[in-house]
Amino acid sequence: MAGNFTAIDLSLLAAPDVVETIDYETILAAMLADLVARAPEFSALVESDPAYKILEVAAFREVILRQRANEAARAVMLPYALGADLDNLAALFGVVRLVVDPGDALAVPPIPPTYETDDALRRRTQLSLEGYSTAGPRGAYIYHALTASGDVLDANASSPSPGDVLVSVLSRTGNGTAAAPLLATVLAALDDEDVRPLCDHVVVASAGIVNYSVAATLTFFTGPDQAVVLASAQAAIEAYAEAQHRIGRDVTLSGIYAALHQPGVMRVDLTAPVANIAIGATQASFCTSITLTDGGIGE
Description:
Elements: H1 4-7, H2 24-38, H3 50-75, H4 83-91, E1 99-101, E2 114-115, H5 118-131, H6 138-148, E3 152-161, E4 164-171, H7 180-190, E5 201-206, E6 208-220, H8 226-244, H9 253-260, E7 265-272, E8 283-297
Parallel strand pairs: 4-5, 6-8
Antiparallel strand pairs: 1-2, 3-4, 6-7
Helix pairs in contact: 2-3, 4-5, 5-6, 6-7, 8-9
């Protein structure tokens, strides 16, 4: 059974009230009304009037200040914090950003290290409270597996039989198949006496990879540059395939159609896949190829 922190989808939370909607024209109108109330002789202001220009500058500066307040508020909220703000927020939970690739400081030019993404760090921070438990909740196993190595893209825990725990690992490398050294690293992290309950028998295995390809012909409306629209569809379907490259996420026809139906696309004729691809709790999908064909202008 998933714990509270495993179940919460931060993207579904309502926008916080502390973050206000900012509109320049509304602020300027309020300033103009305030000026007229204080000094009625300015009731016939036109945009070329110096007083009007001064209020335009003031309104623009207020927009900047309010936006800064919005950004400061978001910086201390887990769903919205980014970059160094998120690093500092995660540190409160004892979580640090993982190194995916150490880079090479001796290369010419030097290759900087690659770190896990904000979304990955945010998820581990969210799960970290479950990591304090040694009662074997699913979220704790997932957190410790994700934290074991920067090469772990995703992980899931299931119990095929009483007392047995199967932790499935998806690698960032290649198609996601976890190599033996990575599995050993994850098992060592999970086998720690402060992590694994005495009665649990933990097995770590690579997620099963379900390969698929996408092939479609796109027909376009008259007007937009077909190459630009096709590139937009290509980027969208690549993003969808990457988002679904996680353990237990189905690949659906509706999701593929939604990605390909970019503005300017009249019709999508999808030839692969031909049906939804169901992905089990120990599996992950991997898109081997994407082929989009220009079907020309529709009639």
